[in-house]
Amino acid sequence: MLWWYKLHIIFLIGIVNLCESSGKVRLVDVTTLTLYRDKYTTGRRSASIPQIQCVGGSAKGKFEPRVVQCYNRGYDGNDVQWECKAEMSDQYEFGEIRISCEGYEYPNDPYILQGSCGLKYNLEYSHDGQGNYDKSKKVPNAPPYEDEYGSFKLSTVVIFLLFLLLIYCSCMQPTTGNDRTRRSGWGWDQGPPPPPGNGRPPPPGFKSFTRPSDAPPTYEESFQNTFGTQSQSSGPGFFSGLGLGGLAGYMYGRSQNSEDSFFRSRRPQDSFWSSSHSRDRDDSPRPSTSRTTSGFGGTERR
Question: How far apart are CA 186 and CA 179, in angstroms?
Answer without folding.
Answer: 10
